[in-house]
Design a protein that fits this description.
The protein is mainly α. The chain is 80% helix and 0% strand. The chain is globular, with a radius of gyration of 17 Å.
Length: 244
């Protein structure tokens, strides 16, 4: 492996520890940090197929914990609309503009999450219907462009008072479904190539190690403290993408 690929493998390891612990975070971590090494439009077809496998494992193993009513009636119909729009936009945004948009998005989302968590704002009151719909549709748009709709989705879905296991399993099923659609769009537009597949295969062992570690840590580590550390790292990374 060259140096860039080794760094990317390290980011993938951290990302899938986080993803397996909490149910979200893998792609936004890899894409934000990895954008310093490779173009965003190259990274997405590399990482999304890996994420399909990882989330399929969690969703299948803990399928009895998936809230199917929430997933299929209250999330997917709205996220699907945003996802279609995001996939369309992704065809026309490239290079530096795409990278700057990613940096701005990460800084905004992480700053808001850090503010909420550090202030101890754990209000679980449901969002107003219009606000919930807008948030989930927006998450779909972000998912379609950057495969990183996790923070917005978590903001909306966390209000439903799900258990940690149900939350993780339901989101894993969601990412499996939406990322399968994304991978199909990359294949249809020629972004999924022999080169991206080679990178994907090389990264699989690091994903597996991250998932094993994440499974162990899921039951023992304070999730809130861990998420604060992740959001701090992402905020710094997002700023560096934005101004670098």
């Amino acid at each position: 492996m060259d140096t860039h690929l080794l760094w990317l493998a390290a980011f993938v390891l951290v990302a899938y520890i986080t993803q397996t612990m909490t149910g979200f975070g893998s792609l936004i971590i890899v894409i934000t940090l990895g954008s310093h090494l490779y173009p965003v439009e190259f990274l997405l077809p590399v990482i999304v197929p890996v994420d399909i496998c990882a989330t399929a494992y969690i969703a299948a193993r803990y399928s009895n914990r998936i809230d199917r009513d929430l997933l299929f009636r209250r999330i997917l119909p709205f996220m699907g609309l945003g996802l279609a729009a995001g996939i369309f936009v992704f065809q026309f945004v490239h290079g530096l503009l795409l990278k700057r948009c990613l940096g701005l998005l990460v800084v905004f989302l992480c700053s808001r999450e850090l503010y909420r968590m550090l202030r101890g704002r754990n209000d679980l009151q449901l969002l107003a219907p219009w606000k919930y719909t807008l948030t989930i549709v927006s998450a779909g748009v972000v998912q379609g462009i950057f495969a990183s709709g996790g923070p917005l989705t978590v903001y909306a879905v966390s209000k439903f008072k799900l258990s940690k296991a149900t939350f993780r399993s339901t989101l894993s099923a969601l990412w499996f479904l939406t990322n399968t659609v994304l991978a199909a769009s990359y294949l249809a537009t020629g972004r999924l190539t022999a080169t991206t597949v080679r990178f994907t295969v090389l990264l699989v062992p690091f994903v597996l190690i991250g998932m094993v570690a994440g499974e162990r840590l899921h039951h023992h580590v304070n999730e809130d403290h861990f998420r604060i550390a992740v959001f701090l790292i992402l905020s710094i990374a997002g700023l560096s993408v934005l101004v670098g």
